[in-house]
Amino acid sequence: MHAMQYDITLPADYDMGVIRTRVATRGHLLDDFPGLGLKAYLMRERADGSPVNQYAPFYLWAEAAGMNAFLWGPGFQGIVNDFGRPVVQHWTVLAYDEGPATAAAPRTATRRRHPLPAGIAPADAVAEALERHAVRAAGDGVVATALAVDPRHWELLVLTVRADTSPGIPDAPDTDRFQVLHLSAPGRSGLGAGRSW
User: Fold this and answer.
1) How many helices (H) and strands (E) does the chain have?
2) Tens digit of pLDDT for each residue in 90-112?
3) Domain for residue 194, yes or no?
4) Is residue 145 part of a domain?
5) What is the pTM (predicted TM-score) of this model?
6) CATH for 123
7) 133 with 98: CB under 8 angstroms?
8) Are 197 and 148 in contact (CB under 8 A)?
9) DSSP one-letter code for 196
10) Which residues are paired to 96 by β-bridges?
11) Which of 135, 140, 192 is nearest to 158 (CA)?
């Protein structure tokens, strides 16, 4: 399973209603996209206390073929046409779990990216992250959560989608908070649960 995200940072005075309209009119187009586990249409804005206005869709791909079909097809080209070509970040998924609020509509998401400590064996750092992931997944209000790693930069990613606006486990200082505008989840039921190996 692959996680993927691109951040489109917009001007401070950008009308974020444009992003809301974009998602409201186009978000459904990926509701049955082959190979897609889920796509969370994420947005954060300065009006809510974010340091930036940003559109930051997050994807979990069940298959690399689906990810490739999206990136080299008309879906991603629409992003390129409208905003320029963003850097596409991607990670290998270590674990995915549904939470107690799995049946609820998601409203917010948190994202944390942080380096694996240099002085600890990668397997030990991942084992510790998996323990924290299990606790997070069981938290009140959690719809779903994913833990992933970028071994090129030795970076861990934690994305948690929630049915409410509370942060759940207290946010670390480097946690980004987003609104969830829509969730396309054609392959969500096939993502499996727990660690990915």
Assistant:
1) 4, 11
2) 999 999 999 999 999 999 999 99
3) no
4) yes
5) 0.94
6) 3.30.70.100
7) no
8) no
9) -
10) 146, 194
11) 135
